[in-house]
Amino acid sequence: MTDILYTGPIPAEREGELAMGGGRSETSALSGTGGGQGMTTTQNSQRPNACCFCWCCCCSCSCLTVRNEEERRRRRRRKRISQDTKMETIPICEACTKPSVDEIRLWAQSFDKLMRNPAGRNVFREFLRTEYSEENMLFWLACEDLKQENNKNAIEEKARSIYEEYISILSPKEVSLDARVREVINRKMQDPTPHTFEDAQLQIYTLMHRDSYPRFLSSNIYKSLIHGGSRTSSES
């Protein structure tokens, strides 16, 4: 017996269901294509969103490209500073006279000789800046300044400023100190003195001596000063 396909008008009571989507399967059957469309819809809903995947990949690639470009700029800046360094190009953070070649050579004999020389500290600070550890020198200098203070109110104010800028874990310039030294500082901050940060200053001094100083001596910044001074002396 052959099935007869109904193509007449849809009863009024079914129109509401169709409007709400309730008659989707029946309408599909009447049209003769509903089965294929329903299957296609289900398959599409199970298929991963290719556009979303591509967007994530593009976003990740863009972030990686930005980070790589920033790193390349930093390297070019360090290279430019290293190759073109002269005493005239070093920022003067402390008042000092231009050192002779012999004085510059003395900085390689010991870290103490470097740190006792204002010009040496300026150059070393510039080197630390290229390594993103300038806060170590800034903290050491702030402690030296505090030691020269005699006024009690000024001592308390400077001590609080040093703590907030270099000791607080919330500070972007926080220096690296162990738990014991931090505990000592917290105790001494109850009644600050010019020597409140003495233990911390020694620890940072030791860190710069052991970690940064050897790299400074082998850096292009220091070598260019030696070679540049030697050429100037020979020309004169």
UniProtKB/TrEMBL annotation:
Q: Which InterPro entries is this protein grouped with?
A: RGS, RGS_sf, RGS_subdomain_2
What are the entry keywords? Cytoplasm, Glycoprotein, Lipoprotein, Membrane, Nucleus, Palmitate, Signal transduction inhibitor, Ubl conjugation
List the lineage, top down: Eukaryota, Metazoa, Chordata, Craniata, Vertebrata
- One of the record's GO cellular component terms: membrane
Identify its membrane topology class: Lipid-anchor
Q: How does it assemble?
A: Forms a complex with G(alpha)z/i2 subunits and mu-opioid receptors; the formation of this complex results in mu-opioid receptor desensitization. Interacts with OPRM1.
Q: Which SMART domains match?
A: RGS
Q: Where is this region: Disordered?
A: 1-41
Localization of this protein: Cytoplasm; Membrane; Nucleus
Q: Which PROSITE patterns does the record associate with it?
A: RGS
Which processes are annotated in GO (biological process)?
Answer: G protein-coupled receptor signaling pathway; negative regulation of signal transduction
Q: Specify where it is mainly localized.
A: cytoplasm
List, for all copies, the residue spans of the domain called RGS: 110-226
Sorted alphabetically, which Pfam families does this protein's record hold? RGS
Name of the protein: Regulator of G-protein signaling 20
Give the protein's function: Inhibits signal transduction by increasing the GTPase activity of G protein alpha subunits thereby driving them into their inactive GDP-bound form. Binds selectively to G(z)-alpha and G(alpha)-i2 subunits, accelerates their GTPase activity and regulates their signaling activities. The G(z)-alpha activity is inhibited by the phosphorylation and palmitoylation of the G-protein. Negatively regulates mu-opioid receptor-mediated activation of the G-proteins.
Look up and give the organism this protein is from: Monopterus albus (Swamp eel)
